[in-house]
């Protein structure tokens, strides 16, 4: 095991979101690990270090009285020569109260929110006092939280790699993709389907590519479209978005949308973005 991250903090301060961010960074995450199982789980990780190279484990007030033995747990980790870092996520009482009010969630300790916060601070104090890093999320956006975690964890990854871009080509006759964040219609491009020698080819074939790319409308469109996507992606990253799906549609999803999706994917890969390409309807109607 290269590194163990012990994640703790106040309920409502962003622990769950932090675990999701660690997971996006490729770290194996376990939420609410019982303290009694901690040592045994670490042994499992040590025996399979390829799978459990970096691990993040969340321990918080839900552990109750077991947290009184937290320092003993750290002694065990030191004895096993585990490289660990304790990160405690905190926020002001007023911010925690506001977040509970906005989400209308019950406090995990089963008390009123204000009393729950006071009691929780006492319970997690054993972790707070030995934390290597304390992150106050009171004024952090998701994007800023992601950047903070990246720095604390020493994860060497460009911000562009934080966003997973999915590009889907589709045919309108088969319906819109349900998970699309951005949908663009390229049916204004002259349809290769009506050219006999191109009808049974796809946008991945050289002849179709040449036919579409030589159209002035396509050249002007793609120049604007690609720059628009390139310009907006950093803003999605800043807001902390991890996944973005761009759907490009034409009538049947076999020619124009396929070629445009391929070209956009190549464009974004050249800009060092993580891109996944899927041609949903390319085999329809064959």
How is this fold's topology laid out?
Elements: E1 3-9, H1 15-24, E2 28-30, H2 35-47, E3 54-58, H3 70-79, E4 84-90, H4 93-103, H5 113-123, H6 125-128, E5 133-136, H7 142-153, E6 164-171, E7 182-185, H8 206-213, H9 216-238, E8 243-250, H10 256-270, E9 274-279
Parallel strand pairs: 1-3, 1-4, 2-3, 4-5, 6-8, 6-9, 7-8
Helix pairs in contact: 1-7, 2-3
What does this molecule look like?
With 286 residues, the chain is α/β, with parallel strands linked by helices. It contains ten helices and nine strands. Strand 2 (28-30), helix 2 and strand 3 (54-58) form a beta-alpha-beta unit. The relative contact order is 0.14.
Question: Features of this protein?
Answer:
single chain, 286 residues, alpha/beta, 4-stranded parallel beta sheet, 41% helix, elongated
> From N to C, what is the helix and strand string?
EHEHEHEHHHEHEEHHEHE
**β-sheet strand percentage:** 15-25%
Q: What are the segments in which pLDDT stays under 50 over at least 5 consecutive residues?
A: none
Give the helix level as a range of percent. 40-55%
Give the strand line-up of the largest sheet.
2-3-1-4-5
- Number of DSSP E strands: 9
Global shape: elongated
Described by its quaternary structure, the protein is single chain
Tell me the major beta sheet.
5 strands, parallel
Question: Which class of secondary structure composition applies to the elements?
Answer: alpha/beta
Average pLDDT figure? 90
Whole-number radius of gyration? 25 Å
Give the helix tally: 10
State the end-to-end distance.
Answer: 50 Å
């Amino acid at each position: 095991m290269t590194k163990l991250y012990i994640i703790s903090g106040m309920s409502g301060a962003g622990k769950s979101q932090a675990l999701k961010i660690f997971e996006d960074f490729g770290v194996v995450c376990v939420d609410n690990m019982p303290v009694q199982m901690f040592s045994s789980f670490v042994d499992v990780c040590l025996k399979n270090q390829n799978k459990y190279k970096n691990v993040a484990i969340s321990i918080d007030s839900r552990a109750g009285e077991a947290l009184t033995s937290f320092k003993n747990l750290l002694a065990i980790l030191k004895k096993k020569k585990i490289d660990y870092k304790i990160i405690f996520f905190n926020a002001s009482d007023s911010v925690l109260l506001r977040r509970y009010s906005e989400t209308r969630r019950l406090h995990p300790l089963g008390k009123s929110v204000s009393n729950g916060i006071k009691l929780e601070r006492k319970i997690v104090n054993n972790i707070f006092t030995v934390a290597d890093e304390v992150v106050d999320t009171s004024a952090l956006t998701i994007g800023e939280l992601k950047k903070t975690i990246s720095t604390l964890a020493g994860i060497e990854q460009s911000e562009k790699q934080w966003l997973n871009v999915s590009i889907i080509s589709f045919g309108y006759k088969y319906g819109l993709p349900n998970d699309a964040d951005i949908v663009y219609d390229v049916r204004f491009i002259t349809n290769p389907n009506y050219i006999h020698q191109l009808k049974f080819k796809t946008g991945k074939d050289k002849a179709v590519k040449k036919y579409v790319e030589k159209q002035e409308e396509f050249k002007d469109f793609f120049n604007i479209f690609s720059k628009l996507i390139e310009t907006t992606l950093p803003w999605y990253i800043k807001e902390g978005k991890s996944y973005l799906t761009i759907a490009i549609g034409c009538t049947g999803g076999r020619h124009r949308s396929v070629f445009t999706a391929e070209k956009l994917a190549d464009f974004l890969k050249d800009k060092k973005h993580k891109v996944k390409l899927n041609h949903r309807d390319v085999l329809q109607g064959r």
